[in-house]
Amino acid sequence: MKICKNCGRQTEDDKVRCPYCGNLFESEMDLVVRRMKSDLQNYKQGMSAPVAPAPAPAQPAPAPAQTAPVRAEDEAWRKERQEMATTIAELRGEVRAMQGELGRIQSSHAAYPQPVYMQPVPQAAPAAAPQEPAAAQPAQPAQTAQPAQTVYMAPQLYAPAGAPVYAPAQPALSPAETKSELKKVRSSNRIVLSVLCLALIAASIALFFVSWITYTVGGEEFAFRGFDAVLYAMGKGKGSTFEYYLNTLISAGAIPLGSVLATPVRYAVRYGILVYGVLLVLGFPILFSLGGRFIGKGWHSAFAWLPFIVALILFGLFFLVSGFGSITMGFLLGAAANLVRAIFLIFYSSKVDWKIVERPVAQKPKLPQQPKPVKVQQKKK
Known about the structure:
By secondary structure, the chain is mostly helical. The chain has helices spanning about 25-50, 65-110, 190-205, 225-235, 240-250, 260-280, 295-320, 330-345; strands at about 1-5, 10, 115-120, 150, 180-185, 210-215, 220-225, 355-360. Strand 6 (about 210-215) and strand 7 form a beta hairpin. It is rod-shaped.
């Protein structure tokens, strides 16, 4: 008996197709193809076999009555040839149909699991008990045949030996599982300019501790630093060269219009140096820009130009009091460092650099929905 894999019904062994659904049995396909190939080979051999020429008749001319059998044989041969050609065309059509059927069966096997029928295994009968008299034996009902059990098994695909094995591709995250976020990016422009500005601030503060002014009184040379103004403000610079510069050189008879300008110039020099030092220290918040994220361009630019402006005012006061020759290179280089720092900060980037970052989002498990209560309306009597 054969079992059709399409409808699952049983049929006889000599059937090529299922009489119920018309499905072609795979086991019979090879047999049909071999038969068709053998018929086609026999036909080709018959067509290619040479035909022996008939011996010439000894009679001078055939009678009209003898041509009738020859024409009948030719017509029979033509009919047979036409029938063979028709048979070959039918065989070709059958081969194409079977190839299409085979492809459909293979695709259906790969897509859906096929049922496998398993017959129940008969169990061994228990040992016979001693028989009792016929009158004492109760009538037992006849056992009915158990139906066949259907077990569905998934098809298994086997690769040939030596064939490469590919791992299944991991499913990509769907757009719902990722979230786009804007992230602030470090700016290389701010990092480089911050390093340069810090170096210039450090140079200006270092030059704050060198001699700024050298002056001569009575053939003796004196000098003071910018830090001496800080010591004088703290009450530790009495009798120093800075105090002597304020009280002796900035006087009514030492500078032009001294009766009017002496006191304002004295206070401007005394407190102007202190303001200059404080402005240099206030430029240190540029340290926060070393990471490239903090901007603060307005703050940095303000405390680069302000020290330069104060240094320019001090330069004019020193030139008025003691002349250009008394101003040292330490003061001039410190003021120039502030100017260079202010020029660098013109190219300081004030834009926030953002970057789109895709981050996976953990999906919350969905709770099973509870069925809504159904209200039953009772009919009024």
